[in-house]
Amino acid sequence: MYCPQCGQQQVSDSLRFCSRCGFPLEGVLQLLGSGGALPFYQPASGPREMSARRKGVRQGAALVLAGAVMVPVLGIINSFTIGPNLLDILVPLAAIIFFVGGLMRMLFAGLFEEGAHMHPKIVTTSYAPPPLSQLGAHAPGALPPAQNHTATGWRFRPNTSEIRQSSSVTENTTRLLDKDDPANR
Length: 185
Known about the structure:
Elements: H1 26-33, H2 52-80, H3 87-112, H4 132-135, H5 169-180
Helix pairs in contact: 2-3
């Protein structure tokens, strides 16, 4: 199979994206697997019911928003009262219940409750190219046959183990310094 955007041949049919240009190939696989007809997905009939996870997250968000309204209202009412009363305990208790309870409800719903049912994915068969008989008699081969031409004027690499090791530069420099040293005179 070839990428329809850049023309690169794909290594396997299980790739979902072209390795050169990033084009999504899953729709191409479905199109080729169904013989050129796009598959039709039947939407679920009837009203869709909300999943338990989504209901729980909505309940938690409603608790947090209700707390954002109720706690300031209770605080304002408490500021108009004189002396110790029930509202002194009710305002912090409402803040804890609404905010922490809402966050805990959202966390519980997100982690432990079931999400929406996934639509069954239609498994497509992998694309098989048409047989060569359908392509006609003029179907070219993938590559021409290998040619056995040796390069002319080629000489073999020299055997470097026979080359003499050069003398050390530091030995000659040390000898020159020894000659200039006045203590050795």
